[in-house]
Design a protein that fits this description.
Strand order of the largest sheet: 2-1-3-4-12-11
Order of helices and strands: HEHEEHEEEEEEEHEEHH
Largest sheet: 6 strands, mixed
Distance between the termini: 153 Å
Number of helices: 6
Strand content: 15-25%
Shape: elongated
Helix content: 40-55%
Length: 387
């Protein structure tokens, strides 16, 4: 819950911003209202100085509100104002701005006081310490420029007396526009510069409001309200507020009538609800019966599913066995084919050998006939006699 931490998960606001709006609510209405609850009071004119969009867009809807900026339109340089703007505003909001205003800062506070109506108020925040005095970083600032030198930012200044000054180790705050820290306020110095500018009423707000997410962990850098006198809204704004209250009362009366009508409607609806409850009880009984039947059918279906799973497993195993037998059959067929081919080759070889045996037998018979003829010849007998 540090003052600058975006601690709201919805709008991203910080303690500082919530405390600023709470202080505005307290000073305008004497009550703690969240911003959407503010009444519409277009008679109250508010000037914002680079206000956060977290609340600026809602302030436009509630008041005659203008947000201004130093670096873009609508522009406002608090050190150089148009006289026509003096005395026009009931409230000036300034959050984390005046520590960046060029010196002398007294001119900025004096101009804010001039912008306000006699009973207007400044609501502001700045970082400040509890040191004895405000620390001005560039007390003799006159004609200056912030330039980039390598990977650093430096400030080059020429004083009113013509002296050239160079400052390093500059401190910049986050955000758009000119965010160079010109000074470090102290509480004592802040009170003095406000009173010197004509703010006779200065009040710091250290109170915590946990229900609004406003907790101040330190006794410094608190929001404050300052005015020439105690703030008082313009009379026409009070009339506008009274009209707003009357409108709210009329709305309440209208809502009360609507509520009475709704009460009558609710009585009828109550009777209808009782009848519906009876019908519901009947339906519940039918539902219980149907549910019991569904449970029984579910159990039957589950049992059937288990049987189906068992039979599916059996069929799968049978199919696997059939595939295995089919493979064995194909193997046997292949072996039978090979053996048939071998038997046919063997049969062919046997037939070939039988033919050769027949041929040899014929040749042998011829040879025997030749031998018998030869043995019966006279030459063979002669050979035997000569032996």
């Amino acid at each position: 819950m540090e003052r600058e931490t975006q601690s709201c998960a919805q709008c991203g606001s910080s303690v500082r911003l919530r405390a600023l709006i709470h202080l505005l609510s307290r000073e305008l209405f004497g009550a703690a209202l969240i911003l959407p609850q503010f009444p519409v009071m277009k008679r109250i004119r508010i000037l914002g100085m680079s206000d956060s969009q977290d609340y600026a867009e809602q302030l436009v809807e509630k008041f005659d509100y203008t947000n201004t900026f130093f670096h873009k339109e609508p522009k406002l340089d608090i050190t150089q104002l148009d006289d026509n703007d003096f005395g026009r505003f009931d409230v000036v909001l300034s959050s984390e701005v005046l520590e960046h205003a060029a010196p002398p800062v007294e001119d900025a506070f004096l101009n804010i006081q001039r912008l306000l109506k006699p009973r207007g108020m400044l609501i502001m925040t700045v970082p400040y310490s509890l040191d004895p005095d405000t620390t001005e970083h560039f007390a003799d600032l006159k004609s200056y420029s912030v330039v980039t030198l390598g990977d650093r930012m430096i400030l080059v200044n020429r004083t009113a007396g013509g002296e050239l000054q160079i400052f390093e180790d500059l401190v910049f705050h986050g955000g758009d526009g000119s965010t160079l820290e010109m000074r470090r306020f102290s509480e004592t110095g802040l009170r003095k510069v406000l009173r010197d500018a004509g703010f006779d009423h200065v009040e710091f707000a250290p109170q915590t409001y946990p229900e609004f997410g406003i907790l101040h962990p330190h006794p410094w850098s608190l929001p404050l309200v300052a005015g020439k006198q105690r703030f008082a809204p313009p009379p026409d704004a009070i009339g506008e507020l009274v009209e707003h209250i009357h409108e709210q009362q009329r709305n309440c009366e209208r809502m009360a009538k609507e509520l009475d009508q709704r009460d009558a409607t609710l009585v009828l609806r109550g009777q209808e609800i009782n009848e519906s409850k009876q019908q519901l009880a009947t339906l519940q009984s039918l539902w219980d019966e149907a549910l019991a039947d569904l449970v029984a059918r579910t159990e039957w279906a589950q049992d059937l599913e288990r049987q189906l799973q068992q039979r599916t497993a059996w069929a799968t195993q049978l199919q696997a066995d059939a595939l295995k037998s089919h493979e064995q059959m194909r193997t046997l067929q292949a072996e039978f084919g090979e053996r048939t081919d071998w038997a046919m080759k063997l049969d062919a070889e046997i037939e070939e050998k039988n033919r050769r045996v027949v041929t040899l037998s014929s040749e042998l018979d011829l040879a025997r006939g030749d031998l018998n003829r030869l043995q019966s010849s006279r030459w063979f007998r002669l050979r035997k006699l000569l032996r």
